[in-house]
Write a structure and sequence with these properties.
The complex is a heterodimer of chains A (453) and B (585). Chain A is of the alpha/beta class and 453 residues long. Chain A contains 14 helices and 12 strands. Chain A is globular. Chain B is mainly alpha-helical and 585 residues long. Among the domains of chain B are: 248 residues, no CATH class; 66 residues, no CATH class. Chain B is built from 26 helices and 10 strands. In chain B, strand 5 and strand 6 form a beta hairpin. In chain B, helix 16 crosses helix 18. The longest helix of chain B has 16 residues. Chain B starts with 40 loop residues before the first strand and ends with a strand. Classes of the chains: A alpha/beta (453), B mainly alpha (585). Chain A: Keywords: Signal. Chain B: It holds the Pfam family DUF1800. Chain B: InterPro entries: DUF1800 (IPR014917). Chain B: Keywords: Signal.
């Protein structure tokens, strides 16, 4: 409560509504009690393979090992933003430090797709069972989005989770790949703030316009035997119905609705928050603020940021991306606090893979495997690192490379994507049995809940 | 038989409200004084063989949906008199530039640290004020892309080049330099009907690709793996072993190569730098030439790895070698790899004909790749692209009056195809502008500006709730599907797209619906005619009746002078909106 009061004070304390005619209904006092019946999971996809070795850097005695191997990619120790005594954040993620101090930010270390617990000894003895097509962007994205170890999966865990939880689709504001595809449900991809999200020119009641509009609806709602046509019609049908209900909410932006309270934490989407990822999270925040009109009480959102495939010029490129990501995540969390929803909303990152600990000759790093993830929210066991940090030695116990020319520091994950997802899914309300059904591969792991949330 | 480069002169008196902005009439192809010279393309006149059984009207229309940016009634009639094979033969021989030759390379030759601020050679204020757009971005190429798609006679080469640009992706999202991006796209078009080996080698040696995937300036010490990995994974053999019919052995993904295989290729392709010609404002950086995007990359033997390496699919690369020898060995290993024909063949089928081809169809196309011969086309050399495209387009699974009995058949028209197809059907005058940043973004496909080397959409995107894939469905969603409708609304109801007020020669885009307007007295005839030209497989009776009824609501008695225009607008809008049109079958 103190945090919320503080934030309200910072923003002028006025209880303005979120949009249009719902202002009275959706005022702050109603939110202030929180909403224990509601939970949302916000998946942040960092496409391209985020180099998390420079996201979370050990600042204790391990720093020298980090510095010597990372070479040109090593971040100066003094530039790191301390989170606890052992680790520092990338300087461009400084906006997230207060979340760590408050216990709302956790790090889940060295996560990646696994068939079963896997060690370097398994690789050396050639007895390891490995997921399909390691180090391939598209395939590893599929595994992060599907769960399991086969790239042939057609559905995403987000879609399956949504189907297990209630009536809503997965709501996506950025590229979601197959994350939101359920066995019978599609992702609902939605536009950014200010967008009209409406079929144009159909409002007239004159002449043949109503008949044209009615026929458009018929085209969209007529079942077809051809599967592609049927799928296209389904998207049209969803678009026509959802645009009618969601367009006013989605259109709200700082410029067309200066009184929107979420403009405060998002600083009117200006300055460091003038970014695509901030705009996506602003949309998610509005959806959560207006959850009663959006749908049910268990919702999965997807946002995405492109550009993490930093084979070259990594220091600049990742720094630029983090300079957008850090403020955006911090603003979103501030928005949840403002809404009193911080305990009901958990944000979690996903990324194709980590990158080689050893840099290449282009000032970048190549495709790796295990990767640290950020989890944020009032329910998160924050202020700590969950799992074991890889030993920063080429050819060491965590290195995938068996032959010396392959010692690149592609870390063998010590926690699987399935465990990571299962933990989030348990928090969303699935039983242990339901989680096993969601992620069949999880049965290969003794620990089915990593306990970070 | 194909439309002239410029829109036909408008027939005064027939257009009325369908053509709200006449000011720019005839602006379709050229007249842009700030742009490089308009490219010229020639296509030989096909000779129909004697004794030809003409294709049916329905099959001709389906063929043109697969092989061009969209049929018109005139194209259909012409194709029927010529026949498929002579048409293909003439299209294979089409020569010329799809893209203008005059794009300036000054950004990399002037040696300026801040080119747009410091350059003194801009031809006019527009170029100075739009420096990034005109010198760095792919937007000028997008304008040419759409003008070519609307008016160019070499339609098959253009469709093929669009498909190839989505297999061998480079993107303005990471590579800047209009002149260089032009070279790359023109190269794809030039080599579309040659041999695959030559195409793959040219892609590899392109400084644009070299920049995009970091092959350029890659040295033997700790080489960057980026290009090597995508060369294997996306440009040639793919990560999973394939049967010749494109299926997975045992239904599982068995790896085609491992990570060491990627590193072997990365080492084998070290020692290439930019072509000569660039001038760096920061001075020399040793063996690395300054950025220059015209021509092919240059070998630097001293920076080339000299360790023995394994080649994809087996074979060994000897330790002592030149960069050129190593490159040829890698390209040959991929070219001879059994995965290559089904991996590339199936994706080209998906781009032109259907998203879910039968294994037998893929096998026939693979066989054409291997033998270099199909339907009397091709040189008999493995990888002959004329044989490949002929095998794709003349296959029994591609041909026929309709495929309505197959629930898996067809492909979603990708946005570029939808835009161009609509404008061709509406006989539009267009300068090709506004389909890059605005409409391309809205529809999810900004040509030459994909988010990553994985293209706008993956070939295996699953259609939810089904057992089939639909690649372009990965970018089709509630918002983009409304944008498809709204582009039609802009064209039909809002006078098209306005000319940009500052760009010399800009005309915007306006339609000429006179041929449809002429049929408006009879809603059934109007909808039938649209159906025949646009809808592969045809509208089913209930849908057609519904559209006819909606069109017929407009009448002379109640709706004033524009009732015919309103009928034509309603008819075109609803046909374009129909899933029957949107899914090319």
């Amino acid at each position: 409560m103190n945090r919320r009061d503080l934030l309200k004070a910072l923003m002028g304390g006025s209880a303005l509504g979120t949009f249009g005619g719902l202002q009275a209904l959706m005022s702050i006092p109603a939110h202030a009690a929180g909403d224990p019946s509601y939970k949302a999971l916000v998946c942040v996809q960092l496409f391209g393979g985020n180099d998390s070795a420079n996201m979370i850097v050990p600042t204790d005695s391990r720093y020298s090992a980090y510095q010597s191997v990372r070479g040109v990619l090593a971040l100066p120790k003094a530039s790191l933003v301390p989170i606890g005594a052992q680790y520092g954040l990338h300087p461009a993620l400084a906006a997230l430090e207060p979340l760590w101090s408050r216990g709302d930010l956790g790090v889940v270390s060295n996560v990646g797709p696994l068939v079963r617990p896997t060690t370097r000894a398994d690789l050396v003895s050639k007895t390891a069972r490995l997921p399909d097509n390691l180090f391939s962007h598209s395939d590893q994205q599929n595994l992060w989005q599907s769960g399991g170890s086969s790239v042939l999966g057609r559905t995403g865990w987000g879609g399956r989770l949504a189907e297990a939880l209630g009536p809503d689709p997965v709501f996506a504001f950025g590229n979601s790949g197959r994350l939101g595809i359920g066995s019978a449900r599609s992702t609902l991809a939605l536009p950014g703030p200010g967008s009209d999200f409406a079929p144009a020119g159909l409002a007239s009641n004159w002449g043949g316009h109503p008949a044209r509009k009615a026929m458009l609806q018929t085209l969209a709602s007529t079942p077809r035997s051809n599967k592609l046509m049927n799928a296209f019609a389904g998207i049209q049908n969803t678009a026509l119905s959802r645009s009618a209900s969601l367009a006013p909410l989605l259109k709200v932006s700082p410029s067309n609705n200066p009184s929107e309270i979420l403009n405060g934490p998002f600083q009117n989407l200006s300055g460091a928050l003038d970014s695509d990822i901030a705009r996506q999270l602003y949309q998610v925040a509005k959806m959560i603020a207006n959850r009663q009109s959006v749908g049910g009480n268990r919702q999965v959102f997807v946002v995405a940021q492109d550009g993490y495939d930093t084979h070259e010029n990594q220091l600049t490129r990742q720094g630029d991306l983090f300079a957008e990501l850090g403020p955006a995540l911090a603003a979103f969390q501030a928005a949840m606090v403002l809404l009193g929803m911080e305990d009901s909303v958990t944000t979690a990152t996903l990324s194709d893979f980590g990158r080689t600990f050893k840099p290449n000759s282009s000032g970048g790093a190549d495709h790796g495997w295990g990767n640290h993830q950020l989890v944020i929210g009032g329910a998160v066991q924050g202020g700590k690192l969950h799992g074991s940090f890889p030993e920063l030695a080429l050819g060491g116990p965590d290195d995938f490379g068996v032959n010396s020319w392959e010692y690149q520091g592609r870390w063998i994950p010590t926690q699987s994507v399935d465990q990571y997802i299962a933990t989030l899914a348990r928090w969303m309300g699935l039983s242990d049995a339901q989680v096993l059904s969601l992620l069949p591969n999880l049965g290969n792991f003794t620990v089915r809940n990593l306990g970070f949330v | 038989m194909l439309p002239a480069r410029h829109a036909a002169p408008l027939q005064k008196g027939l257009l009325l409200a369908l053509l709200l902005s006449l000011a720019a009439c005839g602006g379709g192809g050229g007249g842009d004084s700030s742009s490089p010279a308009d490219p010229g393309t020639t296509v030989p006149t096909p000779t129909p063989p004697s004794g030809l059984t003409p294709p049916s009207e329905a099959d001709a229309q389906r063929f043109l949906s697969q092989a061009t940016f969209g049929p018109t009634q005139a194209n259909i009639d012409s194709l029927r008199t010529v026949g498929f094979k002579p048409w293909l033969a003439s299209q294979f021989q089409a020569k010329g530039n799809l893209y203008s030759t005059g794009y300036s390379d000054a950004i990399h030759k002037a040696g300026l640290k801040d080119f747009c601020k410091q350059f003194s050679g801009f031809p006019n204020d527009y170029a100075r004020n739009n420096c990034w757009r005109e010198y760095y971005s792919a937007e000028p190429l997008s304008r040419e892309f759409y003008r070519n798609a609307l008016y160019g006679p070499d339609q098959l080469r253009q469709r093929a080049a669009l498909a190839l640009s989505q297999l061998f992706v480079v993107s303005n999202a990471e590579v800047e330099g209009t002149y260089g991006l032009r070279e790359y796209q023109q190269m794809l078009a030039d080599k579309a009907f040659g041999n695959f080996r030559d195409l793959l080698k040219s892609v590899t040696l392109s400084p644009v690709m070299g920049t995009y995937l970091n092959l350029v300036n890659n040295s033997k010490a700790d080489p960057n793996e980026n290009f090597a990995r995508e060369l294997l994974q996306l440009f040639s053999i793919g990560p999973c072993q394939l049967n010749a019919d494109g299926t997975l052995p045992g239904g599982q993904c068995v790896a085609t190569y491992d990570n060491n295989g990627v590193r072997d290729v990365a080492f084998a392709l070290t020692g290439w730098t930019y072509p000569a010609g660039g001038v760096s404002p920061w001075g020399s950086s040793g063996w690395k030439n300054p950025t220059y995007l015209r021509g092919q990359m240059l070998a630097v033997a001293a920076e080339h790895d000299q360790t023995e390496r394994k080649l994809p699919g087996g074979g060994t690369l000897a330790a002592s070698r030149t960069p050129e020898q190593a490159l040829d060995a890698v390209i040959d290993a991929l070219y001879q790899h059994p995965n290559l024909p089904p991996f590339i063949g199936k994706q080209l089928i998906q781009h032109l004909v259907t998203s879910n081809p039968s294994p037998a169809y893929v096998a026939r196309v693979s066989q054409a790749f291997v033998s270099g011969k199909a339907y009397d086309f091709g040189s008999g050399v493995r990888g002959d692209m004329q044989a490949l495209f002929a095998a794709i387009l003349l296959d029994p699974e591609a041909r026929g009056d309709n495929k309505n009995s197959d629930p898996n058949y067809g492909r979603l028209r990708e946005p570029a195809q939808y835009i161009a197809g609509m404008l061709r059907a509406l006989n539009a005058s267009s300068d090709g502008a506004n389909f890059y940043w605005w409409w391309g973004n809205e529809l999810g496909q900004i040509v030459f500006n994909a988010n990553s080397v994985f293209n706008f959409y993956p070939p295996d995107y699953p259609l939810p709730g089904t057992d089939v894939v639909g690649p372009a469905f990965a970018i089709e969603n509630a918002n983009s599907t409304l944008a498809r409708l709204n582009l039609a609304t802009a064209m039909l109801y809002w006078g098209g797209l306005q000319a940009e007020d500052d760009r010399p020669g800009a005309t915007g885009t306006q339609i000429n619906g006179s041929n449809w307007l002429a049929l408006a007295d009879n809603p059934t005839l109007l909808v039938d005619s649209l159906d025949k030209v646009l809808v592969t497989g045809g509208l089913p009776a209930n849908i057609k009746t519904g559209i006819v009824d909606a069109v017929g609501v407009w009448n002379e008695k109640n709706h004033g002078a524009t009732w015919r225009e309103e009928r034509a607008r309603s008819a075109v809008y609803l046909v374009l909106a129909s899933p029957e049109y949107q899914v090319q079958r």
